[in-house]
């Protein structure tokens, strides 16, 4: 590093900039090892889903790579199992959740970011208080509420308890607070009313937080398991995670390759979203720390 | 302050009235903020909105959700814990402390509590350290490092059900792990990862760790940015190896992040359900031996036939108290750490 400063004229070979060769080799070996541990099981699952009936998935004779890759399991999973119904149900919950979360967390977050109305401290306290209780410790009571509303075995019952999360409201509030007051004042001089300022000034400035809320909501709704397991009863109302878990518990009648195909199908939407909007995922991680 | 008489507000330098007819001042008087020096009118919570209900209208859905599906269920859980309510309805009667006395003498409850606490005790230290090491590994901008970071994050994306399925096949008696161990002649007969109650519990812990690695790695990456590079360089000059630099520079530099990760994962461990459900089947291990507290709450409180929502609520209160205790402990440790 220091030599590079002393002799700026003579550029070092590029790989030298990254460190001593031995250190580099160790680093990459470690990276590959962790890569095998972290994505190995998922890749193995994917490869097994491509195997034909003649190839072993388990046992000493099973190879890692499918010799004759086929999409048979993906056709089968739609024929044998109502996967299309599961996916539709999951999508219903996801779309409902994202819509309600976005609308209500932005509006509430906006108002909480504004000074000058009585009671906003109280609202803030209520929101923070509601985050103190782990879902698992209130789920019995939540279920009784959903039952009293007649929403057992209903997708609305899956969506309703989380229709707007306090954490997302606080996240949006933080993003709106970061908008410079001067911009709003000049917008007011231009005659923009409350709604217009919200819609055309605040919402576009809080784009990052909106993405974080969308992605977090999508993942938690798509991957959620315990609450759908409690609320839903009949097969035609099950979400994808629930349907997949049932495939396993009654597994011995099912072809493992087919179940793996189902798992792969459930991961793909999230993976695609991740590849497109990666940095917002990472932002969501630090946003999660606001929880405390 | 419902109605507002127009104050003559002028834009400095121009002498023009700041108010445009039919806009801001007729509805809100915060306009004064831009042009008047001194204290902002209404900044201390005085009503600025001419229609006082407007802010409430905008925040109402969030308040309703927080109260109806957050605060109320908790209070209701406490009340329910003194009754014998049934999950599918019917008359509930007040039973006093019966549920709590039953709980104290219920060996299954204590087993679930032990499992949950053990889960936290084993997972928290590992989850605090392993992702930090991983973050140090991917911190340096090497060619292709973005790919590795993304790849390490993928287990976070998959639902616990999917990764549970994957691990179930890996750990089966004829699964990949056992096959490889046998091929390497490390073991003779298959390790019963999925039928021995201890092994199920530890496999589930492994699954939690594996799934959380990427998440906390990203979390630590942000924190690592605040550790001064000069310290590392100076230590390297003095001949400190990578391990010593990790313990003496990196770890002290990200202490606060580590405390936060510890707290978050501790709370997370008390909430474990899916991992046990997937690896120990829907019974929660042989004879329910691997059930955690959430698992036990679901079993005793929400079973449509034999469930007792009152008793389930009592166990829920126990879970809440445990979570609260952990949070307070973590806060105290953090404070001591800062002092």
From TrEMBL, chain A:
It comes from the Bacteria. It comes from Streptomyces longisporus. CDD domains: TM_PBP2. It is found in: Cell membrane. Its main location: membrane. Residues 87-277 form the ABC transmembrane type-1 domain. This is Carbohydrate ABC transporter permease. The chain crosses the membrane at residues 24-47, 91-112, 124-146, 158-179, 200-222, 258-276. It is a multi-pass membrane protein. It holds the Pfam family BPD_transp_1. Belongs to the binding-protein-dependent transport system permease family.
TrEMBL record, chain B:
The keyword Transport applies. Residues 1-24 are annotated as: Disordered. The chain crosses the membrane at residues 56-75, 117-138, 150-170, 198-222, 254-273, 309-330. The keyword Transport applies. It is a multi-pass membrane protein. Coiled coil: none annotated. Keywords: Cell membrane, Membrane, Transmembrane, Transmembrane helix, Transport. It is found in: Cell membrane. Residues 113-330 form the ABC transmembrane type-1 domain. InterPro entries: ABC_transporter_permease, MetI-like, MetI-like_sf. Its main location: membrane. Belongs to the binding-protein-dependent transport system permease family. This is Sugar ABC transporter permease. It comes from Streptomyces longisporus.
């Amino acid at each position: 590093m220091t030599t590079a400063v002393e002799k700026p004229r003579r550029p070092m070979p590029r790989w030298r900039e990254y460190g001593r060769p031995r250190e580099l080799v160790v680093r990459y070996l470690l990276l590959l090892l962790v890569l095998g541990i972290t994505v190995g099981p998922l890749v193995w699952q994917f490869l097994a889903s491509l195997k034909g009936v003649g190839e072993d998935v388990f046992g000493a004779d099973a190879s890692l790579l499918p010799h004759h890759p086929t999409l048979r399991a993906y056709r089968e999973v739609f024929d044998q199992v109502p996967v299309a119904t599961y996916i539709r149900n999951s999508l219903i919950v996801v779309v409902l959740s994202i819509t309600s979360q976005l609308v209500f967390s932005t509006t509430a977050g906006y108002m909480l970011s504004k000074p000058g109305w009585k009671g906003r401290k109280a609202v803030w306290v209520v929101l923070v208080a509601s985050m103190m209780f782990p879902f698992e410790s209130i789920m019995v009571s939540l279920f009784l509420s959903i039952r009293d509303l007649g929403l057992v075995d209903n997708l609305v019952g899956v969506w309703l308890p989380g229709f707007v999360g306090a954490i997302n409201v606080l996240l949006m509030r933080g993003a709106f607070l970061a908008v410079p007051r001067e911009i709003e004042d000049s917008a007011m001089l231009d005659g923009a009313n409350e709604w217009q300022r919200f819609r055309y000034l605040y919402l576009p400035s809080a784009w990052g937080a909106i993405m974080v809320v969308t992605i977090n909501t999508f993942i938690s709704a798509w991957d959620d398991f315990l609450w759908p397991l409690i609320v839903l009863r009949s097969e035609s109302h099950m979400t994808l995670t629930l349907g997949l878990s049932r495939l396993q518990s009654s597994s011995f009648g099912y072809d493992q390759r087919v179940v793996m195909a189902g798992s792969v199908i459930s991961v793909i939407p999230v993976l695609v979203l991740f590849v497109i909007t990666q940095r917002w995922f990472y932002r969501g991680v630090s946003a999660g720390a606001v929880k405390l | 302050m419902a109605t507002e008489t127009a104050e003559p507000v002028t834009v400095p330098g121009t002498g023009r009235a700041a108010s445009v007819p039919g806009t801001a001042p007729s509805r809100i008087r915060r306009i004064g903020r831009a042009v008047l020096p001194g204290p902002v009118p209404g900044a201390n919570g005085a009503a600025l909105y001419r229609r006082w209900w407007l802010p409430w209208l905008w925040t109402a859905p969030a308040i309703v959700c927080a109260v109806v599906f957050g605060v109320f269920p908790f209070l209701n859980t406490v009340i329910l814990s003194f009754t014998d309510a049934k999950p599918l309805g019917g008359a509930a009667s007040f039973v006093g402390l019966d549920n709590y006395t039953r709980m104290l003498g219920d060996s299954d409850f204590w087993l679930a509590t032990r499992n949950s606490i053990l889960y936290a005790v084993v997972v928290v230290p590992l989850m605090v350290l392993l992702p930090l090491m991983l973050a140090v590994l991917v911190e340096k901008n090497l060619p292709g490092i973005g790919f590795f970071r993304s790849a390490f994050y993928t287990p976070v994306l998959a639902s616990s059900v999917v990764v549970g399925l994957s691990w179930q096949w890996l750990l089966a008696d004829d699964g990949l792990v056992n096959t490889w161990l046998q091929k390497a002649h490390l073991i003779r007969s298959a390790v019963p990862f999925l039928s021995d109650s201890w092994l199920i519990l530890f496999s589930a812990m492994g699954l939690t760790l594996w799934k959380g690695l990427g998440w906390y790695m990203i979390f630590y990456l942000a924190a690592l940015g605040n550790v001064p590079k000069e310290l590392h360089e100076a230590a390297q000059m003095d001949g400190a190896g990578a391990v010593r630099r990790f313990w003496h520079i990196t770890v002290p530099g990200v202490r606060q992040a580590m405390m936060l990760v510890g707290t978050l994962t501790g709370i997370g461990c008390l909430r474990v359900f899916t991992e046990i459900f997937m690896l120990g089947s829907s019974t929660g291990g042989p004879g329910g031996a691997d059930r955690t507290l959430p698992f036990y709450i679901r079993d005793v409180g929400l079973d449509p036939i034999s469930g007792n929502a009152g008793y389930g609520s009592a166990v829920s209160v126990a879970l809440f108290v445990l979570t609260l205790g952990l949070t307070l402990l973590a806060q105290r440790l953090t404070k001591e750490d800062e002092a």
